[in-house]
Amino acid sequence: MITDVSLKADPVFLDDEEEREECVMNELGIIYHGAYDDVSERAWNYGQFEFGVLDACLFILDKADMPLSNRGDVIKVTRVASAMMNSRDDDGVLVGNWSGDYTYGVPPTSWTGSVQILLDYASTKGTPVCYSQCWVYAAVFNSFLRCLGIPSRVVTNFFSAHDNDGNLKMDIILDENGKLDRNRTKDSIWNYHCWNECYMARPDLPSGFGGWQVVDATPQETSDGMFRCGPASVAAIKHGQICYPFDAPFVFAEVNSDVVFYRRHKDGTLDPVKVNTSHVGRMVLTKAVLHDGRRDITYQYKFPEGTPEERRVLEKAEEFGCQREKSSLPKGDVDVEILNLDVRVGDSFNVTLQFTNHSDQRRSADVYITGTVVYYTGVPSGEVVFKTPRVKLEPLQSKEEKVSVRGEDYMHKLVEQGNIHFIATGKIKETGQIITAMKVITMHNPKLIVKVTGSPRVSEEMYVSVEFTNPFKFSLEKVDLRMEGPGIMALKKKEYSLISPGKSITWTETFSPHRAGSTKLMASLDCAALRQVYGETELTIQP
Known about the structure:
CATH superfamily of the largest domain: Transglutaminase-like
Oligomer: single chain
Distance between the termini: 29 Å
Largest sheet: 6 strands, antiparallel
Strand content: 35-45%
CATH class of the largest domain: Alpha Beta
Mean pLDDT: 93
Radius of gyration: 25 Å
Number of domains: 3
Number of strands: 31
Helix content: 10-25%
Shape: globular
Number of helices: 11
CATH topology of the largest domain: Coagulation Factor XIII, Chain A, domain 2
């Protein structure tokens, strides 16, 4: 018999039945990506109850040489597992690859679930599986945590600051005329970054800092000599108490850094000319409880921008060594904004910049507009647009400037998770004010159509078909298709050597559900010219 006392003594007990159902028992996940104002999502099969997964998770702890006496300590377990999910320095589960070349493994965008990854790692006695990026690390780590009964969820931070050593500044360097200097701009802001939260008591911290903790398996910085991160208390991060273990300053910087634009003079000195305090950590999302909606949990990480509470938190973080840009910069009287738009991959489109003169005098500026294809990590791949319009504004006037982008100019440069990062910068001639705007335009991929036929009952034979039409003017070669569904179908794969322009394919498989309940069949399509194409369908299996 389980008593209330024994439950409360459990360091991972989550006292909310629906949250437990979602964060321990649910095998189906949704992982958010894209941009904060254009959110995309992909389904994921955590598969923590599939045959062989528990053995694989225990093997991971064995591979780490973790003593049995430490395995009842959830802090130590999550810390060891954070290091073991990546292959850096310990031959852990997954090999990271952000190069775009996945010749010797599975592209990160191909995976639809964790089961095959964990089973392959265990069956090869610890040969790292190729390849992973942040959401794959987070998804497989989530499977591990839920399999061991540790409540956990995958979290996405939009505009995540990286590699800035906790100084709370992402530096963008401009020349004297306000033009972006890419060679000297080294800091990176990821369009999004996925990590995990797990729920636990923290008896090693002051009261109030238990509960949700950040753990991150994506190898970015070492912690106690190994590539890992956490557990870091979310409550401590929100309140700037970043002196507590583990790795709180790094996570704090990921959601709180300022973007600082510097003007570089000919003698090499730098002057701050604009500070954007709200770009980084713009939104933090996780899946809603027991339905497919999204849950905005930004407020759990930070107080609203500009509030007295937020200022106190930043001051507290500074006491513990975080450095911020302190310059007090005058507010200019001209603003520029890049407007939202919805673009399908391959389309030509116009980017609209809106300039507003708030003063009662004329203003003019030479503006530099750069559009660069970027990986989701913010690393540039190739420039597709460079325009230098001269903008003249009458007093109190708003004016739009359009920049055309042709599909043929960017398609051959587009990388996976196709994004074009636009930066507009310039200097107001009359005042010397620097104006800046940034926008990530996400290219939307075509989708797979997944259809199921047959009687949805345990052990009854059913059919699933995946349909896709190539919408492009070029052929897709070596196309890899995958599908799976928890409780109903193990991973199945098929390759098409060529899909010609305008041609359609239909792939049909049979399956027999072995478990009743609500579930999904999810599919992915992947090839060198087109990544991150997904489809899914929901179904309820009767006993």
